[in-house]
Amino acid sequence: MSSRCEAMVLVRIGSRGRYVCCGAEDAHLHHKLTRARGGLLLDAVHETHHLMYLCAEHHAIAHDQPAFENGLLIRGSVVSGPDGPIYTGPDEYLTEHYGASSNKRTSNRSTVLG
């Protein structure tokens, strides 16, 4: 089974437009939080928020500067902590789940200690 590109593209109809999924087949898995900035640490805990499928055309531009503004890259980084990955950056989901003071991290710690 091949995956389809999840990049959103603007389709214009007259003077109006709307965003739709690219949908091209044979898309490749792309790390919005790059592996070098901790994406592999999130992979290890089966997190998928930082992943998306991109066709070759969209993957080719996924690491350019506008990629942050276009949602193809996530700002921040992840490091290993005693209770799992620790994220630092502006992404709300990753901060809630992997930030240094997240409830998930606190509940995991109390489970280990208690």
How is this fold's topology laid out?
Blueprint: E1 8-13, E2 16-21, E3 28-31, H1 39-44, E4 51-54, H2 56-61, E5 77-81, E6 84-88, H3 92-98, H4 103-113
Antiparallel strand pairs: 1-2, 3-4, 5-6
Descriptive account of the structure:
- This protein is an alpha+beta fold.
- The chain has one domain.
- Helices cover 26% and strands 26% of the residues.
- The chain has 4 helices and 6 strands.
- The strands form 3 sheets. Strands 1-2 form a two-stranded antiparallel ribbon.
- The chain starts with 7 loop residues before the first strand and ends with a helix.
- Residues 106-114 have low confidence and may be disordered.
The tally of beta strands, per DSSP, is 6
Count of discrete alpha- or pi-helical segments spanning 4 or more residues: 4
What is the terminal separation in angstroms? Answer: 44 Å
How much of the sequence lies in strands comes to 25-35%
Strands of the widest sheet, in order across it, are 1-2
The average pLDDT score comes to 89
The poorly predicted ranges are 106-114
Helix and strand composition category: alpha+beta
> What composes the largest sheet?
2 strands, antiparallel
What does the radius of gyration come to? 17 Å
Helix-strand topology string: EEEHEHEEHH
What global shape is seen?
elongated
**Number of spatially distinct domains:** 1
Helix share of residues?
25-40%
